[in-house]
Amino acid sequence: MAILTLSILTAADLMAQEIKDRPRRIEASFSFENLSPHDTYGDWNTGNLAFYNKVSPGFTYFVQGSVFNRNEGNGGTGTIGAYKDWADFLYTYTAITAGTNSIYLPKFRADHDFNVKVGPNKIIVLTLGGTFIDYFNDHRDLIISGGPTLYLNRWILQYRLFHNESNPGSIGSFSHLFSVGYGEEGWQWTYLNVSFGKQAYMATSLATPEAVDKNSLNIGVQHRHWLGKHYGIFGDASYFKLQEGYEKFGIAMGVFYEF
Questions:
Q1: How many domains does the chain have?
Q2: Rg for the chain (alpha carbons), in Å?
Q3: What CATH number does residue 207 fall under?
Q4: Domain enclosing residue 146, as ranges
Q5: Is residue 168 part of a domain?
Q6: In a domain, 244, yes or no
Q7: How far apart are CA 220 and CA 214, in angstroms?
Q8: pTM to 2 decimal places
Q9: Taking the CB of residue 157, how many other CB atoms lie within 10 A of it?
Q10: What are the CA-CA distances from residue 97 to residues 52, 111, 149, 176 (Å)?
């Protein structure tokens, strides 16, 4: 089974949709990740292309395509999704992803978040989300998550708790995300994200299937910078460690244009 990587929608992703005079955005990026032991895992290379369109003040849709190059083989995924305002206190995020036949990509993935604004000035957002992932082998993951996000002028503070139930075996595990962001739309966004917890699943590829339960740690810094009114660059640097597994150092760079 491919080790599950949680795809976190940060507050910067949500804020990026608040585009008034530039309702469309196109992004292209490339990431390189070096793994150790290198002889076993090699390098991971990923290319991404995404398009966002804010068709009304309360609705934005997006499409994204990604191609992957790993020792296990090449692959690709396609994603469609949307952000929708239902009321002044409620908005949602929904995405559906399908991948090519690969041991590390999802056959089908669905994500949905409910976000509720609370407090006198609605500076606190409470999120409740769910993710379902069906792989090309016999594994499936159901992830329930939630937590608060606090908006303080240019600062954004977020915590999110994830519970993953992996099948076969109904094996449960928890992980945590802490995120601190600073910036402003049209200027720059910088985020420090720290997540840690368990990677737990049933290793059915063994002669005698057994449960795997390992600690993991992921640290990442993300930066998006406007070089002009309508365009800019973004990137990130990350470190991931899986107990008795592998270490991974990653870097990504991209460009975006708004029109």
A1: 1
A2: 18
A3: 2.40.160.40
A4: 26-258
A5: yes
A6: yes
A7: 20
A8: 0.90
A9: 15
A10: 16, 9, 25, 23
